Every structure is written in structure tokens, then in C-alpha cells.
Amino acid sequence: MGKPETNLHVDAELLAQAQAAGVSVEAVAESAIRQALAKADPAAAEERARKWAEENAEAIKDYNRRIRERGLISDEFRKW
Questions:
Q1: 18: which residues sit within 8 A by CB, 6+ positions away?
Q2: Is residue 8 within 8 Å of 29, Cβ to Cβ?
């Protein structure tokens, strides 16, 4: 899928503040769009999540296996 064109206007001062603070404007925008879509069309959001989980099932399975075998990198810092 190609990248659709966008005509996004953001307050210049707000954008400069975000950039100065190291905020990824693209990541924030993408997250906000995902949240808005989940609210506007919960069934489609659920389908996207299901599809993502299906597409990544092998990697998730491998990750979980490695954690079972090796533990978490933070295990040595646990106090419980």
C-alpha cells in the first residue's frame, strides 16, 4: 500500500515545542488516529488487532519461548 497524501496543518509554535522536547509528532499523530479509529469503528479496530496478532504469531511465539528459556533481562533487578 502506498503512502496517501496528507494535508495536515499543525500550529507552528506547538510543533516547534514538540520538536524541541524530542516528541515524535508522527508517532503521536499515528497513535491519536488509531485511538480515534478504535472509537469510531470498534469492530474494524478489533479486526486490525486480530490481523496484526495473526501476522506476528510466529514472532510472538518465539519471543515467549525465549523468555521462558532465558528469563527477562530485568530479572536480576527484581526484589520479589
A1: 25, 28
A2: yes
